[in-house]
Design a protein that fits this description.
Elements lengths: L1 E7 L6 H15 L2 H7 L6 E8 L5 E10 L2 H13 L11 H12 L8 E7 L9 H7 L5 E8 L7 H12 L7 E4 L5 H25 L5
Parallel strand pairs: 1-2, 1-4, 4-5, 5-6
Antiparallel strand pairs: 2-3
Helix pairs in contact: 1-3, 1-7, 2-7, 4-5
């Protein structure tokens, strides 16, 4: 499985909120249930993490790293925890972030499952949007899930969830998880990662067993 985590650092995310999500992600990656989900398959998960904001602002926090042991996860967690925000005061160019993620996934063509997780607290307001990205970039066989942070003053919880459900998520089994503000980011990220990682085992089982005969 190739898994891309895309972290929103647009201008709706202040410095304290950025730290909550950065440290929340670092902690979630080494939570016991998340570690167990990473290693439920005998094949390693290849992980990439980047932060995004404006149309020209996608910055790697972690380039492709194969997660084969708990020590790998510990090193990745430390890298995320020590990372520094690269940009601020830029709008939300989600389509550009998705396009960037799709191109990076081409570096992991050998992976049978490919997933992008987009986390954010707002809707696209810069450049092209998700629909345009899906039409222009290579998304065949790619699942896109969403993590909505209910902390925006520009949109209600219902509006954000609807935007993610109708515009952002893509592919069979795609889903949205919702955090009750940035204080809830770690717990929601744990839940989302477990759900994503366990889905690869279900997919592998279906490929082995083939279609049901009823």
């Amino acid at each position: 499985m190739a898994l891309v985590l895309a972290v929103d650092v647009s201008n709706s995310v202040d410095q304290d909120e950025d730290q909550l999500q950065r440290q929340g992600l670092a902690a979630a990656l080494i939570a016991p249930e998340v570690q167990a989900a990473f290693f439920v398959s005998p094949e390693p998960v290849s992980l990439m993490v980047f932060e995004w904001s404006g149309r020209f602002h996608q910055d790697l926090l972690l380039d492709w790293t194969d997660i084969a042991t708990p020590d790998d996860l510990a090193r990745v967690s430390a890298t995320i925890s020590l990372s520094q925000r690269q940009t601020r005061d830029f709008p939300t160019a989600m389509g550009h972030a998705l396009g960037y993620a799709a191109l990076k996934l081409r570096e992991r063509e050998q992976c049978a499952a490919k997933t992008i997780d987009v986390a954010g607290d707002g809707r696209n307001n810069d450049g092209y949007g998700p629909f345009e990205a899906y039409a222009a970039f290579p998304f065949e066989g790619v699942t896109v899930n969403g993590l909505v942070v209910d902390a925006s003053i520009l949109a209600t919880r219902e509006q954000l969830i609807e935007f993610y459900q109708t515009t952002v998520i893509r592919g069979p089994g795609a889903f949205v998880e919702v955090a009750d503000g940035f204080d809830d980011y770690e717990e929601t990220m744990r839940r989302k990662l477990v759900r994503e990682l366990l889905s690869q085992v279900v997919g592998q089982a279906e490929m082995i067993e083939g279609p049901s005969s009823g």
